[in-house]
């Protein structure tokens, strides 16, 4: 079976399981999503939502964040972890948006990844979620599941993204990644995947092996 054929088999089942995949970060503007996505590194979306709920009513524009000091931002985002680094990135990102992009979050991978703290994963979230462009988001769940399922053997997220982009049709890329994340949270957990109860076990490479052994 080619990887493209494997993708379509997995997609068919995941589509029925997760009919309405969606971003679990709360936001009302592109900039809010950008900040929330930067905060979500090494942190759960639920925790980020708790934190941004207290920040965004007061500060939710690049202009507002650019006027704050790193220490002020750090204090507000402390519970998301790695807060000093994140505060520095958010402050610099906001300043760049004000100075170079008229305060508007750009809509290309090239421009987005020039912003402080914005790697390909964060840029892909913005491209897919805000601008409805094709985007492959490889977070920790997507990385683990793509490997287990047999879609890739790469471990570097950028290499996984580029490999998947070769055989996943552009129109399915973003939603498929959402479904991988949803399945990673619900069933295919890092420590203990529930292959026995998984709808994909006869298609997924890891699942086939695990059930044969069992
Ligand atoms: S069969 Fe197992 S490894 Fe494969 S997706 Fe399901 S839970 Fe994960």
User: According to CATH, what is the class of the largest domain?
Assistant: Mainly Alpha
Sketch the topology as an H/E string, one letter per element: HHHHHHHHHHHH
Uncertain segments of ≥5 residues (pLDDT<50)? none
The amount of helix comes to 55-70%
Q: Can you walk me through this structure?
A:
- The chain has helices at residues 3-17, 30-39, 45-55, 62-67, 70-77, 83-100, 109-112, 120-129, 140-149, 157-167, 170-186, 205-213.
- The chain has 214 residues and is mainly alpha-helical.
- Helix 9 packs across helix 11 (170-186).
- The mean pLDDT is 97.
- Bound molecules: iron/sulfur cluster.
- Iron/sulfur cluster binds next to helix 9 and helix 12.
